[in-house]
Amino acid sequence: MGEQTEYEKGDKAPNPGIYTEVGEARSFHTQIQNPKRIEMKKGDTFPETSNKDRKWKKAEKARVH
């Protein structure tokens, strides 16, 4: 079983680091303009995203197009 990589509002950060918003569809053609980036400590609660269709993902794992 793999480790969870996308998080929603209210989830707890599994590790410290920088997290960024990603689109739910994860399509090559779906780019997010000015995604939010947040610094989290282990156990911090993820805040609301800018859009209901977005999720949080650790920045080094987020695909940039």
Could you explain the architecture of this structure?
- The protein has no helices and four strands.
- By secondary structure, the protein is mainly β.
- It has one domain (6-58).
- The radius of gyration is 11 Å and the shape is globular.
- Pfam families: YjzC (PF14168).
- Residues 28-65 are annotated as: Disordered.
- Residues 36-65 have a biased composition (Basic and acidic residues).
| Strand tally | 4
Largest sheet composition: 4 strands, antiparallel
Gap between N and C termini: 28 Å
Q: Number of folding domains? A: 1
Topology pattern, helix = H, strand = E: EEEE
The fraction of residues in strands falls at 25-35%
How many separate helices?
0
The rough form would be described as: globular
- Unreliable spans are none
Strand order of the largest sheet: 1-4-2-3
- Tell me the helix content: under 10%
The overall pLDDT, averaged over residues, is 84
The secondary-structure class comes to mainly beta
Protein name: YjzC family protein
Organism: Paenibacillus graminis
Region (Disordered): 28-65
Pfam family, one: YjzC
